[in-house]
Amino acid sequence: MNSIINFLLLISLQVCCHQFSEYPNPDHVHKDKNPHKHHELPLAEEGQKYPNYHKIVSSNSEFAFKFYQEIASDAAAKNIFFSPFSISTAFALLTLGAKSETKNQIHKTLAFNISEIEEREIHEAFQQLTHELSHPSSKVQLNIGNTLFIDESLRFLATFLEDAKTFYEAEGLSIDFSVPRLVKKQINDYVRNKTHGKIPLAIEHLEPATVMVLVNYIFFKASWEKPFDIRLTRKRDFFIDANTTVQIDLMRHMDYYNIFRDEDLSCWVVEIPYKGDITALFILPDEGKLERVEAALVTETLSKWTTSLTYKNIDLHFPKFNISASYDVKYLLQRMGVTAVFNDSSDLSGITGECNLKVSKVCMGMRLVAGILPFSLNQIFSKKIFIHKALCQGI
């Protein structure tokens, strides 16, 4: 029986969530325990201080799911593809220079409870997490970076720039914003070099009042631990919706994987490892159950899935696909409660010492390629925060 397949793609700190194209075969069961346990970031050695990045994992996951729900409410039948880690990192960096209600709103939306975690601990956690993710196994290529481009008429406060470099490995570059065409070229060339040419056009439009641009980029490339055999790849129908079908290359591999059948949500979950210490978690809702699974995307559900996985022999079918997406992050964050940083009450005086800065635009562009040869998944994220001069009101 043909079924409609809708891709569900969620990128978070712990997991990549997709759908794979057909049900796992539950008849092939291996009773031995999985020698490849679910990969997690390393814990502290016995007697050592517990890594700070564990203090923000639940917050980052909570933000990821809430942001997903905001996109899903408008996305209709479109694919959803975004990087919550990119958003969280860039705005956490921005709080180094934010004050008063501007900072409070960002912390609240990013799910950081300042009564339970100190601000410095948040930044230390991002520092450690970025370091861990940027220095994985040599089998994985993962580059994460933050860069602040500022107009020559302004100067970063020494404390802000030092903290941005220390906690977020951010570069601060002074350029002449008076010629937008040249500024776009400088920024685009910079990002293109940092992402191995995968993001050739980071900025398409730059408004005249812009005096600062914060760019966060992520480049990830890895090969599957269990490669698909190209000889088993076949052209198959792929159902985009009830009335639209396209021909795709459907890869196939029969092997042991961690899987779980969630009867409550009517979906299958399968974990597919890359070479190295990173895995992807794919979710396949039963026909007509996608919205039900989406509504249940919370940290508790993720925990249930990852702790319930069992090692079984399955007949895995996986499509070759490309996904590109872009979002007006400003609009989505405003709906989630971040408003002050976007209007004239914005207080970003901790960046330059001036009170007339506000964020005018936040955009994100992504591209993902799941290929047959090489057997790899490439994820490229780029997020830009544009800061303009603003009137100084209520500060």
UniProtKB/TrEMBL annotation:
This is Alpha-1-antitrypsin-like. GO terms for cellular component: extracellular space. Residues 1-17 form the signal peptide. One of its GO terms (molecular function) is serine-type endopeptidase inhibitor activity. Belongs to the serpin family. Keywords: Glycoprotein, Protease inhibitor, Serine protease inhibitor, Signal. InterPro entries: Serpin_dom (IPR023796), Serpin_fam (IPR000215), Serpin_sf (IPR036186), Serpin_sf_1 (IPR042178), Serpin_sf_2 (IPR042185). The lineage of its organism: Eukaryota, Metazoa, Chordata, Craniata, Vertebrata.
